[in-house]
Structure formats: structure tokens, C-alpha cells
Design brief:
This protein is mainly α and about 130 residues long. It is built from 6 helices and 2 strands; from the N terminus they run ααααββαα. The chain has one domain. The chain has a two-stranded antiparallel ribbon with strand order 1-2. The two termini are about 20 Å apart.
Amino acid sequence: MQIEEKEIRKNEKDLLQYKKGDFLVGDIYGDGSRVPYKDNEYAEYKFFKNPLAGGETDLINEGNFINSFFLQKPLQNKYLFGATDYKVPMLKKKYGADIFGIGKDRFKRFLDNYVKDDYIKVLKKQLGQ
């Protein structure tokens, strides 16, 4: 495992909080887009349950889906979450695999806030500085 992956995994819980934050505000893809519910009654129910998402799709009802997330092994330097909740196939089919990613800007912010300093320390230690 490379240094950067170790540092990211060390802060996996914090990265998951970023993803949860996206879901809470109705940004299920982590790119600033919103997906409205097709059923107006359900949208109203969701608005009162989670006003932060404004009645738009947040993929959080009881929290079982997002709470089952875990960080998968990176593919081509891209980190994705996996999930163990039974709703995964249905939600993946309905909304696509991008719901398991995190936006570039959010990931960069995570790296700057949680990984960068420790990564630099490890590199300096390896270089004997």
C-alpha cells in the first residue's frame, strides 16, 4: 500500500462524513447536482424529514444505506465507496454507480484538511528530515 493510500485510509471515517454531508444536502453525486423525487407526496415527506435536501433525493431515510458505506480499494487513483445495505442493487440501478463516488472538489478539500500534513510528515521521515 502506498503512503497516500495509507493516509487516506487512516482518515476513512472523515471521508465518509464528507459523503454523508453531500447526501444530507441532496447532492447524491457529490458534484452539486440535485435529483428531484418524481412523487410529489414523497418529496414533501422527505422535505419534512430532511429539510437540508429541500425535498430532493438524499438517499437517507433511516440511514442504513449510507451507514453501510466503506472505502474500496482505489482504481486508477479514484476512490469509491462500497456498501453492504440490501438496497444497493436497487439504488445503483435507479441512480447509477456515481452515487458511490465523491466529487473532486470535496475530495481535494478532504485531502487538504486530513491527509496532506500527515503525508508530508511521513515523506520527511522517510527522507530523514
